[in-house]
Amino acid sequence: MAASAPIISFREVCKRYPGGYDALSGINFEVDTGELLFVTGHSGAGKSTLLKLVAAIERSSTGTVLVAGQNVSTMQRAARPFLRRNLGLVFQDHKLLYDRSVFDNVMLPLQVIGLTTKDASRRARAALDKVGLLAREKANPMSLSGGEQQRLCIARAVVNRPSILLADEPTASLDLETARSVMEIFRSFNQVGVTVLVATHDLAAISQLQPRLLALSKGRQA
Question: Which of 63, 66, 107, 196 could lock 9 by a disulfide, CB 3.0 to 4.6 Å apart?
Answer without folding.
Answer: 66
